[in-house]
Each structure stands twice: as C-alpha cells, then as structure tokens.
C-alpha cells in the first residue's frame, strides 16, 4: 500500500471547505530530525493539564516567575506559589476588572514586583512581601500595561500616545514630567513590551520601537527608521519568545493577521485560513497571547474568545512553521470551546498555567492525557487526496500510530481511534467506525478500516479522532489501498 504522508500536517480551514477542510485539534505536527530515518513526521498529542492546586473560585488573570519565585493573580488577589508543597500564600488585593494583568520586576536592582491590573498599579516589596496600595500616578487616564528596561518601569496610559517611566529602580515613584509621547504617527498606543534592548510600542494601526538613549531627563527616543505600519488588535494580543515579538496585527485597511517581528522588521505568519478565522470574530480586543517552549518546539498561542460560538485557540509552532488548534471538548453539546489555559509561567517545576474560568493551576505536561481529569478530544481531518474528479474505491485505509498504549484498567485500557468519511467535501459524514490502538503491550495492533466505499477523490475527506486518556502518536501517515473506478457519482 502507498503511504500518504500529507495526512500529517497542520490546521487549514478555508473559507470554502470544498477547497480545504483540514483540521488538526489537540495534535501537534512534528518533523523527525533524523536524516537517516525513513519515517519523517508525526502528529503528537498536545500536553494535558495536571492540577497542582486551587486558589479561590475565579479565573486566573496572570502568572509571573523570576529567580525561583512564582506569583499568580487569581480574581482579586495576588498569591505567591510554593510549587514544592503546591500551596499559595496571599500577598494582597488587586482590583479585579476581569481582564489579564501585566507584571514587571526590577529584581535585585530594587527588589520590587509591579502589577498593573484593574486600572491601578501595585508594587510588592520582594524582601518584606508587603504589597502596596494602588500607587499614586500622575496619569489622566487609567494605566493599562507595564514593562521594565534598564532600571525603569514603563507604564502605558489608556487611549493616549503617552508612555510613562518611573524613577530609577522604584515602581512607587512616578513624576508628572516623566513620560514620552509618539509624534511620527497619531494612533493611540495599545500595548508595550520589551525584547532585548528595544521597547515595542504598538498602536492601533502602527508600531514604534524605542530605545534607552541614556539621557538623564528623557532617556527614551524612537529608534530611527523603525515604524511599522501594523498595529495591535488589543493589549494582550502580543507575546515574545525572548528573541522575536509575535502579535495579532491590524492596519488602517481593517485587515487582521498574525506577525512575527524582530529588530523593526515584521513578517506575516498566519495563513489565509487563520486570517479568515480572525475576520469572522465579532471582537478582537480581548485576544490573549502566550508563548512557551517544550522539547525543542516554541509554541505561540493565541486565544480568540469571540471567534465562532465558543472561542478558538490557534497555536503556531515556530520550528515547524505550522498552526494547529487546541480546544476543550464539551461532551454534552459536542463542540470545542477555546482552550481553557489563561496565563503561563516557566518555573523550575515546569510550565505552570492558569484557568480562564476557575482558580485551578496546572502543570502543562506531555505525560498527562486529560484536562484536569476531563477528556481531551484529538481530531485530524485530512486534506483532499487529489484535485482531480476521479472515481475510486477505498479498499483499505491503515493509520500509522504508536500501538499498545492502553492503560492498566478502566477507560483507556483498550483504546480506540474513530474514523469517519465525507464524500461531499465535509458537508455530511458517515457514522464513525472504530479501530483499536492496542491494550498495554499489544504492539502489533493495526488500525485498519476496510471497504470504505466509492468516492470522488476531490470531494473525499477522511477524519480520525481519539478521546481515550492515552499517549496519542499518529504517523508517519496513512497507508491507502485504492482501486480506480469509473462513471459518475
């Protein structure tokens, strides 16, 4: 049988499903780096959520970790986490507007952690663990976002072109004259971030890069020739991997798309299918972004709460340069919701994430196969076999997969993978047919489906899914046995 390796790829749902109806949900395309190995790629199950502790009953608004200490804002409180004992200690109140917070620390320079949330700035003394009341600020409008560079805290003022800087190494001291304003373009600044020695200031339609000139009165100046004519859809729609910035951009023509930028140069990374999903969202102001690295792959995660019925989460793998989706499956309604992760910190104990609905905190773990005990549904909907209107009989389809992955007892002890077929470009589907992935140790198991019928190849879509809480690895593709047919359907 011929191997069809194109089965292993990312998500791409075109505006017209008759041209491309691909889905890749809770599965990550991974290329095998070995030059000598005949098998080149696989779909690996995305990490699960292993609950560590619960802090209150409301949503996580942000996580931050530095020098072995980790903090979370859950609802209206700042908590310091002990990730050995899995406990949390309250450090004080943070005004709760239901939106993500931003963190910035001056570390040993001033022993301060600043938090911007709920329209105020708070400063935690890292030596005494005392959280200040809302800091007195000379702003006209509310503060929206914090950053830190060269001993200064930076603070963005809502609906203005002003960015403020603190006294040196002191986030509690803000002078009424210590701000800088954009002058080369006129749209309001929306977000601020720092990578390496550059300050990124995103407007609603354009972006500026600033740097620290060393001037004692106003140290921050625009970097020459670094205006980008792409803005930011919302204050939390950007993230960084420490080298590049990634954001959901918009311009004055109204287009929304995803960009990667470095040193004042930006490159689109989203596909037309992702741009279609962005254009279909009712609101992009509340897009949330985060970034993490795991086993050599850097993942840039964008959650769009107002996309579709229940929100959508797209993940860009910078190594593979492919997108996949993540989602939380609702068994009652049989639909995917946005991925429940909100906030992330990289710690010595691993990757720690929060929950957009509850106060639960989790380890983001490739060896966990549920979301806090709930099912993870993994779906791969393949691309079209051919652009030609050819008739064929599908005598046999075999899925390449890691076999013998069953659990010792209970659900998942004899795991299965479900397949279904569409003959009309994804409009209607046959009932699902199961195949086994093998009980523990049954490594010779094969996932095979026979006699799937007569299809027109340019309209045939094959989909597999798995809901068992086991390790899922599909690859290197599908093996197909096809008999050429004739006539018309």
Count of β-strands: 40
Low-confidence stretches: none
Distance between the termini: 25 Å
Mean of all residue-level pLDDT scores: 96
Helix residue percentage: under 10%
Tell me the Rg in angstroms: 25 Å
Portion of residues in beta strands equals: over 45%
What structural class is derived from the secondary structure elements? mainly beta
For this structure, the quaternary state is single chain
Helix tally equals 1
Biggest β-sheet description: 6 strands, antiparallel
The rough form would be described as globular
Describe it for me?
The chain is mainly β and 489 residues long. Helices cover 2% and strands 49% of the residues. The chain contains one helix and 40 strands. Strands 1, 4, 5, 35, 38 and 40 form a six-stranded antiparallel beta sheet that branches. A six-stranded antiparallel beta sheet has the order 2-3-34-39-36-37. It is globular. The two termini are 25 Å apart. The model has no long low-confidence stretch (mean pLDDT 96).
How do you describe this structure in short?
By secondary structure, the protein is an all-beta fold. Helices cover 2% and strands 49% of the residues.
Question: Top keywords for this entry?
Answer:
single chain, 489 residues, mainly beta, six-stranded antiparallel beta sheet, 1 helix, 40 strands, 2% helix, 49% strand, globular
Write the layout of secondary structure elements.
Layout: E1 2-4, E2 12-13, E3 21-25, E4 27-31, E5 41-45, E6 48-54, E7 60-66, E8 69-74, E9 77-82, E10 87-93, E11 102-105, E12 112-117, E13 120-125, E14 143-149, E15 152-157, E16 162-165, E17 179-181, E18 189-195, E19 198-203, E20 207-212, E21 220-222, E22 238-240, E23 245-250, E24 256-262, E25 265-268, H1 272-280, E26 288-294, E27 297-304, E28 312-317, E29 322-330, E30 335-338, E31 341-347, E32 350-355, E33 360-365, E34 378-381, E35 391-401, E36 416-422, E37 433-436, E38 447-456, E39 461-466, E40 473-484
Antiparallel strand pairs: 1-40, 2-3, 3-34, 4-5, 5-40, 6-33, 7-8, 8-9, 9-10, 11-12, 12-13, 14-15, 15-16, 16-17, 18-19, 19-20, 20-21, 22-23, 23-24, 24-25, 26-27, 27-28, 28-29, 29-30, 31-32, 32-33, 34-39, 35-38, 35-40, 36-37, 36-39
């Amino acid at each position: 049988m011929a191997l069809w390796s194109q089965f292993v790829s990312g998500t791409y749902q075109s505006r017209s499903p008759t041209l491309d109806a691909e889905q890749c949900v809770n599965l990550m395309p991974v290329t095998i780096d070995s030059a000598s190995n005949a098998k080149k790629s696989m779909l690996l199950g995305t990490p699960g959520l292993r609950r560590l502790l619960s802090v209150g009953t409301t949503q996580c608004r942000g996580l931050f970790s530095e020098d072995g200490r980790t903090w979370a804002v859950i609802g209206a409180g700042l908590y310091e986490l002990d990730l050995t004992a899995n406990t949390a200690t309250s450090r004080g109140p943070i005004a709760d507007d239901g939106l993500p917070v931003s963190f910035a620390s001056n570390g040993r320079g001033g022993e301060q952690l600043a938090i911007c949330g709920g329209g105020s700035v708070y400063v935690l003394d890292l030596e005494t663990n005392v959280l200040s009341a809302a800091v007195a600020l000379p702003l006209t409008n509310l503060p929206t976002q914090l950053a830190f560079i060269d001993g200064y805290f930076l603070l963005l003022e809502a609906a203005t072109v002003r960015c403020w800087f603190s006294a040196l190494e002191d986030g509690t001291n803000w002078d009424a004259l210590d701000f800088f304003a954009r002058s080369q373009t006129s749209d309001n600044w929306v977000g601020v971030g720092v990578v390496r020695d550059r300050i990124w200031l995103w407007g609603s339609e354009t972006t500026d890069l600033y740097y620290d000139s060393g001037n004692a009165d106003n140290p921050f100046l625009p970097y020459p020739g670094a205006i980008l004519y792409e803005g930011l859809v919302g204050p939390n729609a950007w993230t960084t991997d420490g080298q590049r910035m990634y954001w959901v951009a918009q311009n004055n023509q109204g287009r929304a798309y995803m960009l990667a930028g470095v040193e004042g140069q930006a490159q689109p990374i989203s596909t037309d299918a992702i741009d279609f999903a962005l254009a279909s969202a009712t609101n992009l102001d509340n897009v949330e972004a985060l970034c993490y690295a795991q086993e050599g792959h850097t993942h840039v995660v964008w959650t769009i709460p107002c996309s579709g019925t229940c929100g959508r989460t797209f993940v860009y793998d910078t190594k593979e340069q492919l997108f996949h989706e993540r989602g939380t499956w609702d068994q009652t309604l049989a639909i995917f919701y946005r991925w429940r992760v909100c906030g992330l910190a990289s710690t010595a104990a691993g990757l720690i994430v929060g929950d957009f609905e509850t106060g639960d905190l989790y380890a983001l773990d490739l060896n966990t196969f549920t979301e806090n005990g709930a099912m993870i549904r993994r779906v791969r909907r393949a691309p079209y076999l051919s652009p030609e209107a050819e008739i064929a009989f599908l005598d046999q389809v075999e899925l390449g997969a890691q076999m013998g992955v069953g659990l010792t007892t209970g659900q998942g002890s004899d795991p299965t993978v479900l397949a279904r077929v569409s003959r009309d470009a994804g409009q209607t589907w046959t009932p699902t047919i199961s195949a086994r992935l093998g009980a523990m140790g049954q490594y010779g198991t094969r996932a095979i489906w026979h006699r799937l019928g007569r299809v027109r190849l340019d309209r045939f879509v094959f989909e597999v899914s798995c809901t068992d809480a086991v390790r899922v690895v599909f690859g290197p593709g599908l093996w197909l046995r096809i008999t050429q047919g004739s006539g018309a359907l």
